[in-house]
Inverse folding.
């Protein structure tokens, strides 16, 4: 059900939620979990006007906090990994492009069943656009899923690939950097306390030394880090990630890591002594985002260089105190590859397209909806089709862009279809959590993660 306006919203939560001087009190958790949270998150996404949506989002976020679902930074755990106090697992960072409320519930169910600790929910700069999910909407959907499933604990929300676009940078550097800074600001206000800044697109391999090749990368990464430190809430140290090699490009090297970290440290010091730097480093070891589709639409097998990943992770920890290396573009790898990530000391692995593929290829996605999405892509993305692309290759590469225009249709799938899709996704999440050695890591949260409840100003429409 959608609340038709502020009056209906205030009336609908009466008796279940109560606004107090300190925020929000949950009067009836059973009603909240069984029905009201569904209506609140639906209104937060599809509400009839901005004021109603904003009020619903405030209620979702504060209801979560009242029940112990607190947005948090993973910084403390990553520092412990850098000291060698924690390890032997790889933290999954999950990009949710569609059915965010249902998919996040599947994540929480799998995590609670296996006593999994840190799981990161993330969305990239590009995904925000083509899935039509701004950061606060994403925060609300994931928070609501935590409330619905009964999850309690820190909630790790992450800005993935907050990336400087090289083409736009070449035309207008100031405008492009401002766009990234504006997004960082927006994400922090939405409680994204983990942010991966990606300036690796500016690496210039034509330069004569590795440090010169990395100069623009590390200089701008330091500038963005300093901005984050200036804006982060009191008591929160945002976990910032850097990147030394663009995913899909040449494989990274320890020499590049050393050059980046040396220059980054020098530049960061200029913004103020003792500023906390990055906690992890993203590298390239042979993957591409989404995988490489073959003419029949299947995905080519990737030859990921685990030895390079191992060497980079070890150097990142022992030389710079980082949690280790981060692997992007991994969700389409063969199943047998995933247990190698913890074996070589990978700190974090980013997973996205594999879950998208489950949704599109599931028998529980109505065939007529799938075909309507594909027809839309044939019309609206025709300019992206390369001359040698088969129909299957074209659709595979562009179908991620169908989620935004059809977000309403996907949220309105019959309940039995959404439940069945959720079970498929839950099985996949559970498989990955086991492979990444995440089962039984819940106690790490209490030891190394400090979740700070950052107050949110009361929305005007909810003032009595």
């Amino acid at each position: 059900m959608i609340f038709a306006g502020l009056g209906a919203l205030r009336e609908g939560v009466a008796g279940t939620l109560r606004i107090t001087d300190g925020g929000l009190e949950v009067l009836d958790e059973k009603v909240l979990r069984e029905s009201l949270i569904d209506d609140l998150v639906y209104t937060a996404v599809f509400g009839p006007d901005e004021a109603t949506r904003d009020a619903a989002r405030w209620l979702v976020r504060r209801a979560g906090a009242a029940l112990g679902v607190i947005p948090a930074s993973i910084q403390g755990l990553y520092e412990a990994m850098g000291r060698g106090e924690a390890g032997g697992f790889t933290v999954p960072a999950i990009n949710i492009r569609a059915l965010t409320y249902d998919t996040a519930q599947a994540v929480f169910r799998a995590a609670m069943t296996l006593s999994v600790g840190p799981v990161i929910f993330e969305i990239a700069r590009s995904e925000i656009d083509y899935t039509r999910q701004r950061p606060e909407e994403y925060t609300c959907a994931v928070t609501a899923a935590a409330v619905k499933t009964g999850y309690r604990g820190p909630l790790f929300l992450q800005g993935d690939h907050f990336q400087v676009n090289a083409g736009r940078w070449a035309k207008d550097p100031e405008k492009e950097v401002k766009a990234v800074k504006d997004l960082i600001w927006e994400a922090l206000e939405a409680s994204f306390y983990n942010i991966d800044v990606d300036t690796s697109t500016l690496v210039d391999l034509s330069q004569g030394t590795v440090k010169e090749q990395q100069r623009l990368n590390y200089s701008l990464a330091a500038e963005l880090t300093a901005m984050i430190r200036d804006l982060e809430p009191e008591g929160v140290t945002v976990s910032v990630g850097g990147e030394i090699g663009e995913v899909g490009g040449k494989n990274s090297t320890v020499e590049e890591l050393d050059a980046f970290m040396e220059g980054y440290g020098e530049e960061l010091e200029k913004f103020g002594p003792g500023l906390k730097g990055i906690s992890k480093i993203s590298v390239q070891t042979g993957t591409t985002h989404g995988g490489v589709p073959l003419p029949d639409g299947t995905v080519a097998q990737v030859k990921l260089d685990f030895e390079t990943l191992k060497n980079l992770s070890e150097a990142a920890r022992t030389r710079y105190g980082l949690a280790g290396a981060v692997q992007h573009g991994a969700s389409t790898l063969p199943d047998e590859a995933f247990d190698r990530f913890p074996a070589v000391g990978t700190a974090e692995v980013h997973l996205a397209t594999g879950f998208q593929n489950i949704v599109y290829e599931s028998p529980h996605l109505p065939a007529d909806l799938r075909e309507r999405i594909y027809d839309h892509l044939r019309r609206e993305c025709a300019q992206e089709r390369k001359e040698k692309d088969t129909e299957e290759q074209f659709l595979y590469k562009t179908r991620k862009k169908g989620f935004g225009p059809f977000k309403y249709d996907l949220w309105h799938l019959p309940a039995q279809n959404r439940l069945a899709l959720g079970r498929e996704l839950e099985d996949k999440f559970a498989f990955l959590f086991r492979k990444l050695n995440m089962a039984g890591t819940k106690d790490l949260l209490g030891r190394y993660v400090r979740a700070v409840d950052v107050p949110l100003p009361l929305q005007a429409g909810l003032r009595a």
The chain has 19 helices and eleven strands.
